[in-house]
Design a protein that fits this description.
Elements: H1 15-22, E1 36-43, H2 50-60, E2 64-76, E3 79-85, H3 88-99, E4 106-109, H4 115-126, E5 135-138, H5 156-162, E6 168-169, H6 173-180, H7 188-200, E7 206-208, E8 217-224, E9 227-234, H8 244-256, H9 262-278, H10 306-311
Parallel strand pairs: 1-2, 1-4, 4-5, 5-6
Antiparallel strand pairs: 2-3, 7-8, 8-9
Length: 329
């Protein structure tokens, strides 16, 4: 397993204890290639969520993205109008064909749509040998940002059986409530109870996302066998939050394979996502909740390559300054 057990600590553990747990851990190195991360998820034509968001996240964080599609959606920023699921046998065929050729270092699992697909993915994960077990981040997608249902009711039981096969799960509060068949948590104390219940249900590690709570900070709760830790970032004032869950879990998968600890992985993923949310309004995509800006750290003139700058009219291909107007077609 590329990432060792986490050093996240409970409130009664000292910072020194956490530091001791992290000592001696080495980041996985990749000679001559980037880490390869696989997303198993549905497609979002608007580009803000699903495999599109996952692949953008991988690229933004320096990982090579691969994808297996579980469902096609008719979707925009305003909602989902239809879902066409891929037969589970073909989902498995995509997976087997890919890993027979490509060495996958981490896997992010998103929309699985129905129970047969959940079981197909679970069987696939059981096939990895101990000497090559990718990091698995499970985002139990059930409802889109716009409120559209993305997981069949009969798939919840199968999803619970998938929990122990992931190294970490990243449910939001509504998803945790469905997995546990409980009411949605409304405060941190209830989040703690539900996080512990998810561990009892078989999850190895839980990042319970608290974005549905109110307050000036967006606080997520990490729980594992060692204890708990809170991760907070200032809440960003924007309606453009389409794909935040997909993007956070994908960021964790991309970062985990090179990370010294899960603590580092989560804190860096949240820092990156906060920046993507802050820049989201600049994209002006769609008429509903728009996407986050996955490439906010790159889409600026000093960083963009000359071909992109030329396309934007900022320079000519010879490097001389040009007007900012786009070329007519």
């Amino acid at each position: 397993m590329p990432v060792p057990a986490d050093s996240a600590v409970s409130e009664n553990r000292s910072a020194r204890a956490r530091s001791a747990q992290d000592q001696g851990r080495e980041r996985k190195t990749f000679a001559g290639r980037p880490p390869v991360v696989l997303t198993i998820a549905g497609s979002d034509p608007s580009g803000g969520a699903g495999i599109q968001a996952d692949l953008k996240t991988f690229s933004a964080l320096g990982a090579y993205g691969t994808a297996v599609i579980t469902a096609l959606t008719a979707q925009s920023t305003q909602g989902v109008t239809g879902v066409h699921t891929v037969p589970p046998e073909f989902v498995r065929a995509q997976l087997d064909t890919l890993v027979a050729d490509v060495n996958v270092d981490a896997i992010k699992i998103g929309m699985l749509a129905n129970a047969p697909t959940v079981r197909a993915v679970a069987d696939f994960l059981r096939g990895f040998t101990p000497d090559h077990q990718p990091v698995v981040v499970l985002d139990p997608v059930m409802v889109s940002t716009s409120g559209s249902r993305l997981l069949a009711d009969d798939a919840v039981v199968a999803m619970r059986e998938l929990l122990p096969l992931a190294h970490v799960i990243t449910p939001n509060l509504p998803e945790a409530a469905v997995l546990l068949d409980q009411r949605q948590a409304t405060d941190l104390a209830q989040m703690r109870d539900q996080g512990r219940n998810l561990l009892r249900l078989g999850a190895r590690r839980v990042l319970l996302k608290g974005g549905h709570l109110t307050g000036k900070d967006a606080t997520d709760l990490w729980l594992d066998a060692a204890g708990e830790q809170l991760f907070s970032e200032p809440r960003v004032a924007t309606v453009n939050t389409h794909g935040t869950g997909c993007s956070l879990s994908s960021a964790m998968a991309a970062l985990a394979v090179r990370s010294p600890s899960w603590t580092w992985t989560v804190s860096q993923a949240k820092r990156w996502l906060t920046g993507a949310l802050k820049a989201a309004d600049s994209l002006e995509i769609g008429h509903g909740p728009g996407p986050v800006h996955h490439f906010y750290e790159f889409w600026s003139a000093p960083i963009l390559g000359p071909t992109v700058q030329a396309a934007r009219g900022e320079i000519s291909l010879s490097g001389s300054a040009q007007s900012s107007s786009l070329h007519p077609r």
